[in-house]
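Minutes, project check-in
Item: structure for the 1632-residue chain
Input as provided by the requester:
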Amino acid sequence: MEEDASLFPKKLLDDAPLVEDETDELEDPEFVLDSVPGGAENKADPGSSCPGKEQNADKRKQRPAVQDRMQASLLRRDLSHLDQLHEEKDLFIQKTRAELRACRRRMGLLAKQQESVAADLAAERAAGNTAAVGRLEAASQRLCSELGNERDLQAKMTAVLQESVSAMWHIEIQERQLEDTRKSARAEAPAARRCLRERGASGKAERNRLLRVRRSVCLQTERGLRRQKLVEDAQKNHRKAVKFLKASLGRVREQQREEALEARERMRRRRDAVLALKNSISASRETLRKFQAWDQAKAELAEQKAQAEKEVILAQGGDAFKHFCHQRRRRELEAQNRAFAEEQKLRKHEIVRRISKEEAEEGRRKQRPPPPRPAGRPALRGRTWSYVAAFHAGKSTLLRSSPQLQEGRSALPQASLLVKAVSSESVQADGGSLGRAEETLARPEIPGLWKEDYKPYQVPKEDMDQKPVGGTKMDKDVLARTVQRLHSGVIRKQVASRREFRGCPFNSKPKLVHFKDFDIGKVYKKKITLINATYTINYCKLVGVEESLRDFIHIDFDPPGPMSAGMSCEVLVTFKPMVNKDLEGNVSFLAQTGRFSVPLKCSTKKCSLSLDKELIDFGSYVVGETASRTVTLTSLGGLGTRFRFLLASECCDTDTSPSALSTSSSFTYEDKGFYDKIATSFSEQLMEGNESSPTDVPSQKESGKLDVKEQEEGRPVEGVTLTTIVTVPPNEGQTEFSLGEITEGEIGPFSSIKVPVIFTPIVPGAVSTRFKVVFKNQQCPTLYFKVVGVAIDVPVWVPKPNVDLKICMYDRLYQDSILVHTRSKAALRLNFEVCKELQGHLELLPKTGYIQALSSYSVQLKFLPRRSLPEDAGKYFDKESRVLEAPMTIRVADQIKPVGFTVHAIVTTSDLELSPSGVDFGYCTVYEAIRTQVSLCNHSLLPQEFGFVGLPKFVDIQPNDGFGTILPLETLQLDVIFQPTEAKEYNFELVCKSEINRCFKLTCRAVGVHPPLELSHYQVKFAATSLYDTSVATLYVINSRRSKNSPTPSVPRIGLADASPVGPTSFEFLLPPDSPITISPSVGTVWPGKRCLVRVAFRPVLPSELIHQEALQALTKEAEAKSSQKDTATQRKDKRRQSFSTLWLQNRDRLFQASASQPPELQKEDLTSSSQEYQAAQATLTRSFQGKFDKFVVPCVVASGDTKDRKGTEPLSFSPHNTVYLELWCPAVAPSIVVTSDKGKTIADFGDIAVGHRGIKKVSIQNISPEGLDLEYSVLNPNGPFVLLNPISKLASGETRVLELSFYPRESVLAQEMLDVITKRGTLSLALVGTGVASVTTCSIEGGVLNMGYAIAGESTSASFKLQNNSPLPIKFSVQLDSLSTRSGDQHRLPQFLASPAQRTEVVGTQNYSGQSVFSVVPVEGVMEPGRAQDFTVTFSPDHESLYFSDRLQVMLFEKKISHQILLQGAARKHTMFVEGGDPLDVPVESLTVMPACEPQRREGDPQPGPPSPEAEELKPILVTLDYVQLGTDTPAPPATRELQVGCIRTTQLSPKKTVEFSLDSIASLQHKGFTIEPSKGFVERGQTKTISISWMPPIDFDPDHPLMVSALLQLRGDVKETYKVLFVAQVVSGP
């Protein structure tokens, strides 16, 4: 049985259902799409199948398919049931057999036990052991019963096993019977799974379709609502616009009516003015004629007089010519004398006027109080400065009138030498002695007034009879009415949103134009910004300035036109002061809503002085101590003055005060160089004379002290022009207060002077003193200030009453020693106390001590500020400034008044603040690092050292690795760089420690991302690339993951999220805009385990904005050069009439105007990339390019899926977190080879070249690199039109060579190729462009046949046609006739008259007997310009009669191409009449055989008399065949019709008849036969033809089997008479 059970293998058991295995794959749309049924693979393309046919087929097969599926399902269920039963039975049989084997083993054991019990029983019985026998018998019985039970169990199990085996056999038999069904089910299992997947996919597609439908419905609804809203808004806006448009149109119409009225009025005024001008011109002409007549009469009289005088001189024997020359010279000399006398008279008047003016000024100067004189002899420096000040002020008369200089000359012999030195070396006047100082130093107020050729202006006589200044009364009335009318027309009310604007229409910035502290002769400019403050558009017009300001104020204002609300314009105000006085006024403007003005004020330099304090309180000081305070004198005005500090009780006399120097207010520190020259020359004179002034020594020392002190105090010395240093002696009454060294001197404009006030208490008690400051300028009031102090007498004092601990930090210990002195002669006990508020922060040790007599004692100060100091200190601590002022008290035994001192300290914190406190790096891939900036702020007033300690491996801090020193209140920017090592979430803290071991934490978090794709290189460093060259680098995009269970160290995921699916992964590089980078491919898909090659190209170019700027600058320089040349020519003409200063100002103004006027013109020019200026600027910048380095970071986004699976333009779902970055280093350098020809253009444009022709272009290249280069060239298209004729292999440094390029187009096409000149330092790309143009012409003859018609033999007729050149190139053409060209193949052909009509191919027909061509063409050759047409004239000149003249005309282009072929045809007759039509009766080729001469026929017009015989007339036959088409018995057929043409040839011969008459006889008989002929007779004019229509209907008695033949005679009468026999042949044919 066991062997039988082992016969059934396990592989036959179906361990799992067939359908449920793939249920987890139904949701994969890609799997569903890829799994196509096998039957569908053999069918046609699904896109080309018909959906209707598939549905019909499905319907036909639906019923059998359902039955098959049901049967298969039942079979699969039965098989599954059988398999289950088979497995159960097999398992049951195995268990039964195991139990049966166990039962047999138990039965064997029981039998053995029974035998042993029987043996023991027999032995015990033999021994007589009853008890043992009984026990053994019981055991034997038990064994017998157990053995019986086992036998029964064995029998039952055997029966059950047999039944199970038989059932197993039956099951196997059934399985064998269903084996085929099982195989078919297994074969159908994949199809079933595919079917299920297809159902799932179709269901999913249906759900997606319904979702898209719902979305589209929602979008349509939303769009409809939005469209409805837009329509409503548009209608509402339209109604508003219509309303405002009506109002605007009304205003416009009103304005137009007003403008029309104004135009008519203006036209009327113009007419009146024209009429007045016409009358004036007539009167002027009449007056001019009178004057001309008078001048002519005077000239004739003078000529007569001169002639008479000449005759008298000649009669006397003298020389008339010499006499007239002397007379003319004498008259010229008299005129010059008169002009000179007049000029001397005018100069005399001018000198007298200036002398009187100077005397008046001298008188006013003498009336002033004289300057104070020093007690002793004036110093030489003082006299020098007096002369310098007088010269600078233009007062050279001081050299003679100043008593100081007179006294100086008498006292010091070297004074004149000093004056000469100063005047010659420093002043640099004209070379001359001191006596000519007036001519040297004085200058005229008007340049050129004192010149010898100066002529004063004379008022012309015409200007004497002028109208009054204000005009007549009528003029004033007219002006008033005009102003009122203009005002009413200009000013309008402005209403916006039903609100009328009121107020000033424009706001001015600044509101007041103030020119402060001006100097006469200088020019000041300020800008005013006018802002439209109205509701709508407004206008602004400059009215002007007030009458009092017109001589000094000039306004530059360009009306901006209409200005919207809020817009602004600028006004330039120029102020040129001519008088030294304050001016006030307004600048008036006129707006559309009314006038407004901007106030204007001009202030002269004034002296404004003030003291910083009026009371100086020294407080309490012990007798013997010294304290100092400063008082500051500040000048706030633009005019300096002299000051002096005095006691209030002291009298002030500024005139008698000692003054070392007398200077002018106009001499400032700006003349320092001038002073240095004077001092140098003065020192040289002193060294030569070996003399020195004793008064100069102390002044020099004091000035040196002043300079040193000024520099120590940190104040500039420039503010004080001159300072006198004296010491005020202490007053006998009060000597406690004294002033410092600076008590008087000169204070300059906008400067300040500090004067120390010293307090030295002598006697205990309160002391006060009042001081005053007096000034030389009378307009400055006297300033007063008061000084108070208290002197105390205490035996114990502290020499440092203020203990400054500088800057202290919280929670830090600071110590200092306090020294206490005593003047007592006994020992004293001291108690040191700290105020209650600061006892927790300050401590004095020891608290009690003893100071010995006349000695000192030191106490220790400990200061430990706590964080609670601001709250504990209260009033002693200023929270804003952080200053602590702690009063300390020293109590002395037996002394009521304690001794105090103050502890000063600035308490600051030691906090460092990290901002922000937390940093979120976001998502970062493991292939990159993220940098963020963190601000570290030091809130302390002391510098602190810091450092970040314990940094993790994936974090870095720069600069200096996170260590450094931060200054007080400084904020440092630190870069925190995070680079994850694996994909997970990061949360960590960065610790920053200060030098006092304080920790400041920065919380950071980030998410590490492992992207599905990686780059082979994340950084690409390009080599130095030349401009317009290309550098290429390659890298790979790698998808390293092969399967889900691949042994990779890190699975692609975002943080701790699920891993990315394994499959195709797409990428896309996002390039920055306007970058010189190209990546190809920028989009792609990488399959698992594969990689994609990516090409990165770098091509540096110059920005177009820079090239435009360079081109504009070049154009600006060129325009300025042209303008400067014109200005130079103008200046040469005016150089003799203008002074140097005037010429410089004019040049500056002209240059400014030129530079200001050029940019608008240059901006109008269109600088395109193809313009010459653009190319030249590009070449210039390329040569001067210094190099550039750029760094680009290009993101590469990653998405799962293939780009081919996108539906239409639907983008893939790129994850922003799975983004890798590519860093590119792009250095650009200047090219090594540049193009020097054609302004550096790298485009060789051959232009338009005709097809089949060659164009040559030369390109010059230069090596601008410092070394020689080997050249290589890219390969041009061998089948293309471009060829490099002379390739150059080497190019030395600085060498220039020429490349020759050829362009040979073979077809009409635009050709373009790139020629690369390759070197080791870069590549130069030349763009080769050319256009092959085909020669396109059109002919005005359609059909290619030109029929010349009929002509008289021996005469000629002409016709013309046109050829149009439609190509952009000129075309060279030539015309050929076949009759004149050689034909090589004609000698092997048959004669034309022997060949059949189908075989005749020749186009050259009958020719002239004379040998000349019957056809001629003019012109034969020439050139057709582009777009032009060429007229050709064809002349037909037959010399005999023929109907078959023909020839072919060929138009050749460029002597190569046949453009057009035109067939020329013509006929010739001897007489003027001809007949056309009918059937041909002869061949179209004439024989060359000579016909024998015969007697000519007699025709009308022959000179021989006698009527001609009819037999002798020639009858020319004409055959006319008419076919009547019989359609049927019921349908009537149309008659058969033919036509004959009778014509009259236009001729130049004289003929008695101008027309041709024709007639056809036998009309009645023809009509009887069914013929209808219209017309039967008539006449034809010259050059015209007439048609004879012939129609035939078969008569009733017509026999269809026999054609009808009828003849008639056609007679033509012209210059001769001709008779034609017309044969009519009619027949009936059957229709189709």
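Outcome recorded: The chain has a mean pLDDT of 76.
No further action items on this chain.
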